Amino acid sequence: MSQRSAGPEILRLIELMSRLPGFGPRSARRAALFLLKQRDTLLLPLAEAMSDAGHRIEKCSVCGNYDTLQPCAVCQSGGRDEGLICVVEDVPDLWALERGGSYKGRYHVLGGVMSAVDGVTPDDLNIPSLISRVDAGGIREVILALNATFEGQNTAHYVADQLAGKGVQITYLAHGVPVGGELDHLDDGTLAAALRARRSSE
Amino acid sequence: MSQRSAGPEILRLIELMSRLPGFGPRSARRAALFLLKQRDTLLLPLAEAMSDAGHRIEKCSVCGNYDTLQPCAVCQSGGRDEGLICVVEDVPDLWALERGGSYKGRYHVLGGVMSAVDGVTPDDLNIPSLISRVDAGGIREVILALNATFEGQNTAHYVADQLAGKGVQITYLAHGVPVGGELDHLDDGTLAAALRARRSSE
């Protein structure tokens, strides 16, 4: 866009917006205009929220969660099972488990999964700090709650190998039919896993 | 999401992000995490760009464009045809025409189109200010470059009615085959319009 039609401030806003996931130049222009039209109710509050988040939120030194507290609120909260660590790929997975509300242990956020294509090696992930937590003692079980993708399962196996012989139980999330799911819409692998892990009615 | 897993700063960022066009709660969570991971290269610069835009950009009092200058850079720039006004629905349309680079007149941004469904009446649009500009004299032609939608064309006809008898020529953008477009993919209306407006080869 030429500078005659839009000032450098708008161009910079559009350029930065276009780097957000799911945004391209066209949707960034639309979003920038949307923000300018809602200056006091959205644009300025969002600018402040971003600045606030950027200056106050940091990665938890224990588990890798994002929070303004150090260690994070989950690591500090009492009443959780100290002997149980749930390993997740990234923070949204932690949020999803917390929304569920049924898990009452600690977490460890890897910050990604190993990927030959993207050049992500174990050293790029929070795997050494997980091993240190286990080595420090007091951990009874590590749940590898990684995504059921190739990279996720590959990373899970790597982590399991690293933790082997350290006296902790390694567990995985069960595969099966999602609650409310229709058999007709499931892939063959899920259906086969659900069959293998079938339970008695009692 | 419970406050145990994410602090109020993250929740507020996600809530505001989810109001952006094309975003929902899930994509807003992804985008917020994406921003937190690129704090210094994206989150803080974007916060500053938004704050800057929010505090410095305003709507041009003449044409309705957004700029830090008042009147805007397009209204102030010399070498443009003062007698020609191109009426557009919104600022991205102005940007699109400026990217094209072939239009050298002035603009007038309506800020939307009339819509019975959305309750947008002529009074909600910058139509009175367009009439004032024409009444002030010196305008030779008004190009109604509104979108070829029902609401766009309806608004164009309303504006044309309002300007009737004021001694200005009212023109519309030509309908036809887009440059590079394939006939097979065009709708019947466009094809019929292109046929009606066919040109001699000379």
Automatic annotation (TrEMBL), chains A, B:
This is Recombination protein RecR. A zinc finger (C4-type) spans 60-75. Pfam families: RecR_C, RecR_HhH, Toprim_4. SMART domains: TOPRIM. It comes from Hyphomonas jannaschiana VP2. InterPro entries: DNA_Rcmb_RecR, Rcmb_RecR, Rcmb_RecR_Znf, TOPRIM_dom, TOPRIM_RecR. Keywords: DNA damage, DNA recombination, DNA repair, Metal-binding, Zinc, Zinc-finger. PANTHER family: RECOMBINATION PROTEIN RECR. GO terms for biological process: DNA recombination; DNA repair. One of its GO terms (molecular function) is DNA binding. Gene3D superfamilies: 3.40.1360.10, 6.10.250.240, RecR Domain 1. It comes from the Bacteria. Belongs to the RecR family. SUPFAM superfamilies: Recombination protein RecR. May play a role in DNA repair. It seems to be involved in an RecBC-independent recombinational process of DNA repair. It may act with RecF and RecO. The keyword Nucleus does not apply. The lineage of its organism: Bacteria, Pseudomonadati, Pseudomonadota, Alphaproteobacteria, Hyphomonadales. PROSITE patterns: RECR (PS01300), TOPRIM (PS50880). HAMAP family: RecR. Residues 83-178 form the Toprim domain.
